[in-house]
Amino acid sequence: MLQLSHFTTVLLFALFASTVFGITMRETPRRMFRYGTYCFALFVGSVIVFSWIMKFISP
Amino acid sequence: MATAPNKTAPVSKSSQQGSVYLPLIAGWLVPGAGHFLLRKWWRGGLLFASIACMFALGMAMGGKLYSGAQDILDLLGMLGDLGNGLMFFISHFMGIGAQHVRVTTADYGTKFIVVAGLLNVVAAVDAHNLRTGRKA
After folding, report:
1. Taking CB atoms and an 8 Å cutoff, what residues of chain B touch A15?
2. pTM for the predicted model, two decimal places
3. How far apart are CA B80 and CA B77, in angstroms?
4. Which of B49, B105, B136 sits opposite A4 (nearest CB)?
5. Which of A54, B36, B78, B111 lies in disulfide reach of B66, CB 3.0 to 4.6 Å?
6. C-alpha dist (Å) from residue B105 to B36, B67, B109
7. How many of the other CB atoms lie within 10 Å of CB of B49?
8. Do B112 and A1 touch (CB under 8 A)?
């Protein structure tokens, strides 16, 4: 069974989901790339931010 | 910015109506196939690679493949899995996929499989929109 770390899993999830979002939500290749990159950054950035928040609020 | 002229031959109304759902169904059965039918090669290739990799990684992580609907959460999970089209049916009939989630990574794998199915539905609808002209 494949054992990936939590962060690697997040990166893979963000990469694949952002690719599909970019292609399906925008019309030109340039805008697809920019939107995909934006989604990827939001996925990974929000994971990092919420991870730190959980670290500080956990008992 | 100048756009390339449309070089495709005009299609008759009856043949347009007959095949308007073909990219939607093909895209559902095989990820990216709807875009391939519309000659959007690189879009279809990227969609296929993303969705198939996500499904395969979910399987490799020991993800659960929902095959029955014992409760509402199982039903929703199965609906998500059904979005994978042929990949779901082949895996289901070959008995691939865990029946129970025992480790954390298997839970991630289960989510990968469900989200791959949902993304495939989004991609299939995008192919349909391209076919109907709602999207360029």
Report:
1. 50
2. 0.87
3. 5
4. B105
5. B78
6. 33, 20, 6
7. 14
8. no
